[in-house]
């Protein structure tokens, strides 16, 4: 356990930020899952809308630093590949 006041404060801040970021990460995961399910259902219009929402949310979370930018790019790329296969 930390002994300095500044280290104790940093622990409190990190915990608060972790909890805050967790809600956004969960929402992003839910949107990506919904997009995957929409793609699997075969409805092109619904899949397009769900993918668009997921990509937008991934971009926002990456810009805020809640997820790493490359992590967001990888997820977006995989979603777009799946959508492209559905559209063809």
Labels describing this entry:
88 residues; 0% strand; single chain; 88% helix; mainly alpha; Methane Monooxygenase Hydroxylase, Chain G, domain 1
Number of domains: 1
CATH homologous superfamily placement? Ribosomal protein S20
Count of DSSP E strands? 0
Strand content: under 5%
Protein architecture, described:
This protein is mainly alpha-helical. It has one domain (23-87): Methane Monooxygenase Hydroxylase, Chain G, domain 1 (Up-down Bundle). 88% of the residues lie in helices and 0% in strands. It contains three helices and no strands. α1 (5-41) runs antiparallel to α2, α1 (5-41) runs parallel beside α3 and α2 packs antiparallel against α3 (69-87). The longest helix is centred in the N-terminal third of the chain and has 37 residues, at 5-41. 19% of the residues are buried. The model has no long low-confidence stretch (mean pLDDT 95).
Annotate the secondary structure layout.
Elements lengths: L4 H37 L2 H21 L4 H19 L1
